[in-house]
Amino acid sequence: MTDAPAPKPGILDIAPYVGGKSSIAGVAEPMKLSSNENMLGAGEKARAAYEAAIKNIHIYPDGRATKLRDAAAEIHGLEPERLIFGNGSDEVFALLNQTYLTAGDNIVCGQYGFLAYRISALGCEAEVKLAPEPNYKAEVDALLAQVDDRTRIVYVSNPSNPTGSYNTAEEIRRLHAALPASVILVVDEAYAEYVTEADWETAFPLAKDAQNIVVTRTFSKIHGLGGLRVGFGYAPVKVAEAIDRIRLPFNVSVPGVEAATAALADEAHQTASRELVSNWKPRLTQALRGFGLEVLPSAGNFVLVMFDGPERAAAANEYLNTKGIIVRPVGGYGLPQALRITIGTEDQNRAVIDALSEFAAT
Predict the structure, then answer these.
(1) Quick one: 284 and 228 in the same domain?
(2) d(Cα 173, Cα 108) in Å, to the nearest integer?
(3) How far apart are CA 235 and CA 293, in angstroms?
């Protein structure tokens, strides 16, 4: 007996999510390249819509996010009634887990899959089964080998954070075809707009006629709205209807709906954001490899840099901090020997190259 309330079993065993840090002591304006944000920021149309929304922030938002729902459906060619909106795509994952997982069930994801999948699953007293990724990529057969009669959801990041790897359209089709009809396949496409690889395809068409696929997108990356927390999932109608029974009634804010709707129509900003990454990712990769560093191929707006062990990675991180540069250590993903670096502006990328050139020489 205790005299204080106790959380249910397992909660205190969950390691909390820790985001990329945003400050360095003594540095007024550090270069924050730790969270895969859009370094161009939000587009002009989204900012204008956000400012215009101020006059209505005393009013509860439309619980169905109808304006944004219709815009996203039109842009992507989807049925509006099948969209689930949330406080970032993180909330969509949490809602899926809360709706479909009971104690003793499990989810399956790749060894280096996004931590948000696991945290909310563990909070539902479910098991997390990790498929090995020896080549830093989710492998279809390895994922399938983890599926059993208590598996309810399989998560695939495509492209994957933090490794930058991706699965081809054929691999996603093969994975779905081999799953039991009772298992939901969640394809997390947070970085979809940055992908240029010819054998990658969005899973929207595959999901259109399936009863057990959910495809998620976010406004935090290409659209530069990370601070507003808006994401959505494209799901079978029965899944969307089930989730609506437990979804908080006003989970996307008035400014979030307005800014996200405007961002969808801002093709110029999306193009500029893609071009920044497509121009600088190969240049940054080539430069760092020239210093003897291993840089994994990436389909996202970031690169994962491998060092000769955890101590060397920690030293590199500390050295970058002395130059006012914040990147992301990824020991929480089981990669203590690596640093993830967001593709920044030209000045930011050149600063990273200069700093790591100096560090590699030590």
Answers:
(1) no
(2) 17
(3) 41
**How many structural domains is the chain composed of?**
2
Structural domain boundaries enclosing 32? 20-42+268-360
Task: Using only the alpha carbons of the chain, give its radius of gyration.
Answer: 21
Q: Same domain, yes or no, for 31 and 86? A: no
In this predicted structure, the answer to whether residue 1 has a pLDDT above a threshold of 60 is no
Q: Please give the pLDDT value at position 48.
A: 98
The CATH number that applies at residue 332 is 3.90.1150.10
Position 242, amino acid = A
User: Which pTM does this prediction carry?
Assistant: 0.95
Q: Quote the longest CA-to-CA distance of the chain.
A: 62
Going by DSSP bridges, is the β-strand pair 127-131/106-110 parallel, antiparallel, or unpaired? parallel
Domain end residue (candidates: 231, 264, 297): 264
Give pLDDT tens digits for 300-352.
Answer: 999 999 999 999 999 999 999 999 999 999 999 999 999 999 999 999 999 99
Residue 222 falls within a domain, yes or no? Answer: yes
Pairing of strands 302-306, 335-342: antiparallel
Angle at 336 between CA 311 and CA 116, to 5 degrees: 155
Tell me how many degrees the CA angle 252-210-206 measures, rounded to the nearest 5.
85
Cα–Cα distance, 362 to 357 (Å, whole number): 9
Written as six digits, the tokens of 271 are: 């193009």
Q: What is the dihedral of CA 91, 87, 163, 37, to 10 degrees?
A: -170
